[in-house]
Amino acid sequence: MAGPYLSATAMRGGYGKADILNGCTLTVERGQIAVIVGPNGAGKSTAMKAVFGMLHLREGQVALAGEDITHLSPQERVRKGMGFVPQTHNIFPTMTVEENLEMGAFIREDDYRDTMAQVYELFPAVADKRKQNAGELSGGQRQQVAVGRALMTKPSLLMLDEPTAGVSPIVMDELFDRIIEVARTGISILMVEQNARQALEIADIGYVLVQGANRYTDSGQALLADPEVRRTFLGG
Amino acid sequence: MDILNALVAILNFVVIPAASYGAQLALGALGVTLIYGILRFSNFAHGDTMAFGAALVILITWGLQSIGVSLGPLPTALLALPFGIALTAVFILGTDRVVYRFYRSKRSAPIILVMASVGVMFIMNGLTRLIIGVDEIRFDDGARFLITVQQFRAWTGLSEGLSLRVSQALTLVVTALACWALFRFLNRSRAGKAMRAYSDNEDLALLSGIDPERVVRLTWIIATALAVTAGTLYGLDKSFKVFNYFQILLPIFAAAIVGGLGNPLGAVAGGFIVAFSEVAVTYPWRKIATYLGFQPDGLLQLLSTEYKFAVSFVILIVVLLFRPTGLFRGKSV
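^ inputs. structure came back:
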């Protein structure tokens, strides 16, 4: 297959009349971790939502594994292999952890017990609480359930909208470790992060967005080393 | 001996009537709470869904009786109930197609759907009156009593009697079965879990590939089945009168809100809480106080039965003021 696994090119669009995305391009290779960082209001989450089809694009296109999916609904994109973890409201709070995972696998007709076992292996902390309501878990564990739910469809591209928002630094490190593990299984990751420095450390490729357009694109390490990026976005 | 008599009197005049009334409210409140959880509005037409369904059940009962079908000691209405449920469900799905779906697709505010349901309520109320009339109808055939006062006195030798009507026992048994089936469905089956998921987080349910229209249809059918069952049991227990079902809407909503809107377990608990409060407040306790050795001057009745709906009102207001999400933490109103 030629070209990157996910390629979203020259995306333009927004919610109202004014565009939020002004020619934003994101590509992710198989098994890569791509991180979108940038100042508030840069359109980071919007860019990800556009990739997932939650935003109408005026221009540009989205292709997954070489197939044009620009006009598919989010639900159809899930069937094509995309998994999405929203920033908030990403679990079913009055359902047990196990039921959350079952709902993640709702579209699957085959036996998904293997996948569930893999998710529990990845997140042993929530495996112990499988019969507990997800809404009763701590913030970090909820995020694990949310990621686990998205993994139940066996996605080839997992999209995470600020997975570490509102969790403690220790939990954040652990979540990042888990995300690296997920990427090692060959799943591509596209992630929006507020904690830019830590996120870029694990990123194979980093996108710095400003006003809905790409400002810098490089490997995570290169962006961290770039004095210009450090000065303007990483606080020195 | 007096304490025994007092206990029997409490059982006979408070516990048994309140339990069967509570069961009827619970079934009604379950329907209200399910619709609130899934469609996110308070369905004012629920009481008249009960009336409409019960009216159809009565018509079918009459039909069955005229061709000589009966269930022996049990009321024939029990046999007519599944048909009544099916017909009412078809009608209710029709109202969804004609009325609610339009507002749902526009993502209208809940209050607009509530108002639409008030319209549906008036139409269903009129239809029911047109179909079966406004008079009081008794349709409980079969045996009337499981235990009569005379039998009870003969067995126990107590001066205080106790009776258990077939309709009361039937209400409790049918409600227990319906709740068991409903909770099993919601907790075990794929479709039931999809309903709960949709109620919990609509957007995430969509992302998970759950078809919202299917969930909505299923919810209407289940809520209708519960409503028609409740309406029929209420009619068997207390006689059928169209207007009564409009009035019962208040205690049903009180029950659903006390338990926490959207929470099925809460609806059942709420039904019994409202029923027991209503009966306890409107029952004259003089007889029981006398058995216990007091000599009260008055009837010891806190509120005359004409004002029984005030109890629901007070419960509703107290809950909304102090615990708006209800006892079992449902959605806040």
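Strands of chain B lie at 145-147, 164-165. Chain B touches chain A at residues 190, 193-194, 196-197, 200-201, 203-210 (CB under 8 Å).
thumbs up if we can close this ticket
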